[in-house]
């Protein structure tokens, strides 16, 4: 790393810390020539390979804008969308690959979106997975219902019943 002050060709790392939720490393460096200190931030690049073969840097903003359309009119906040985009990026970075197919980004979005809002999930999945007929919607809805029934069975509640207990009111 070149010193930004004297342009010396080397520097020494004095301190390293993670930054930005662990997605980057902040390093404090010192130049052995002029003894001045400076900070560098290192991030692992994540590139998206589009269907056309072109590559571009991964963008959380693009994830949010794509999912926002599916969430239009739904009770989903901007913070919810930002968290979803963060989860998607963490999943993609966790794969260990520097280049990700655009298709895999869509797959990484489906799981967290399904947990966030089922209607938004169906909207996004219908476009992303190219639903062609009502049978495609019916299969997706059946899958959502089965998953919900499993969750409710695991919590001890009957379908349509809350798993929270209520105490009787004053007598």
Automatic annotation (TrEMBL):
Q: Write out the ranges of the annotated region (Disordered).
A: 148-171
The UniProt note on the cofactor reads as follows: Binds 1 zinc ion.
* Residue ranges, compositional bias (Low complexity): 154-171
Q: Where is the ATP-cone domain?
A: 46-136
Keywords assigned: ATP-binding, DNA-binding, Metal-binding, Nucleotide-binding, Repressor, Transcription, Transcription regulation, Zinc, Zinc-finger
**Cofactor(s) of this protein:** Zn(2+)
ZnF region ranges: unnamed: 3-34
Which PROSITE patterns does this one have?
ATP_CONE
- Superkingdom as given in the UniProt entry: Bacteria
The entry assigns this protein to a family as follows: Belongs to the NrdR family.
Q: What does this protein do?
A: Negatively regulates transcription of bacterial ribonucleotide reductase nrd genes and operons by binding to NrdR-boxes.
Q: What is this protein called?
A: Transcriptional repressor NrdR
